[in-house]
Design a protein that fits this description.
- InterPro entries: Hemerythrin-like.
- This protein has 151 residues and is mainly α.
- It has one domain.
- The chain is 85% helix and 0% strand.
- The chain contains five helices and no strands.
- Helix 1 runs antiparallel to helix 2, helix 2 packs antiparallel against helix 5 and helix 3 runs antiparallel to helix 4.
- The relative contact order is 0.19.
């Protein structure tokens, strides 16, 4: 198992949760949208915090690189957090179009972000942190703690 394998799997899990939340919101099924979006948001935020508090610091410490790819990923995480807030506001107000617009933007950003992580950053982390059982275990434990249902 690579250091970042659990994060690859969690991307796919979050993608499915997003699809459920988006479908409910676009249909205007607000009861389902609230539940599905809350689960998706919580899982995505847990994913971000796991990367920001476990993976990125370990990579930065091992490489001395603090202004490179991890800085860009943190910036994109902040953009996605803002879109989550917009989606939440639309759900709270039960307005379909703003929800769908923010969801569409978030989907594109997530797809681009995940491609960069999975094809560039994660392989760099795997090479740099190869054999670091502590980092791999820390990622797994943190996601299990924050998202027990996804583990």
């Amino acid at each position: 198992m690579s250091t970042t394998e659990v994060l690859h799997h969690h991307h796919k899990h979050c993608d499915q949760l997003f699809a459920d939340a988006e479908a409910a919101g676009v249909k205007g099924d607000w009861g389902a949208a609230v539940a599905d979006f809350t689960r998706f948001r919580d899982e995505l935020l847990a994913h971000f915090s796991t990367e920001e508090q476990v993976l990125f610091p370990a990579f930065e410490a091992a490489t001395g690189m603090v202004g490179g790819p991890t800085q860009m990923m943190r910036f994109e995480h902040a953009q996605m957090r803002e879109l989550l807030e917009q989606m939440q506001a639309a759900i709270d107000q039960r307005v379909r179009d703003p929800f769908a617009g923010a969801a569409e933007t978030l989907l594109v950003l997530m797809q681009q972000h995940n491609m960069k992580e999975e094809n560039i950053l994660y392989p760099m982390c795997d090479r740099t942190l190869a054999g670091s059982v502590d980092v791999a275990a820390g990622l797994r434990e943190r996601l299990e703690e924050k998202c027990p249902a996804s583990a």
